[in-house]
Give the backbone structure.
Amino acid sequence: QEIYLKWPNDIVNRNFEKLGGILLQMISPQQLVVGIGLNINNNIKNSDSQNGYQWNSIPINTSKFKQPKKEICYYLYQFILKNRLSSEEVQKQWNSLCQHINQKVTILDFDHKTIGQFMGIGKNGEALIKQEDIVKKVLTGSLRPF
C-alpha cells in the first residue's frame, strides 16, 4: 500500500483515507516528544464526519511478533534513529511524499479559510499556499482537497 503525507500531520493512502497521524510536542529547545498513531489491520472503512474524509488501515502481519504493540513500536523507534535527517532533508522528503503537492486545497482554521495551491512545507513545517502571485504561510488548520 502506497503511503503519503497530508498536512499538517496525517498519514494517508492515495485515496486520502487516513492511516494514522504524527503529533509533536516540544518539551524544551533540546527535547521533542513524537507520538505516532497507526491504524493497523482494521478491515473496516469508516468516515470521519468532523474532518470529512475516510480512514483505513495499514496491513501489517503481526503474527510474526510475540508482543505486536511493543515490538512494532521498538522497530519504528529503531528505524527513526537509523534514518535521522537534517531539517532541510526532512522538508525535501516530506514534500516528495505529500499527497496534495501542487494541488488546489482549502485549509480551515476555525472561521478562517485559506484557498490556494499547496506548494509544500516551509522550514518550520508551515503550509506554503500560493494565491495568485503570493505564497502565504499557514501554521495551523485542517487541509481538504479543493
Observations:
- Helices lie at 68-82, 87-97.
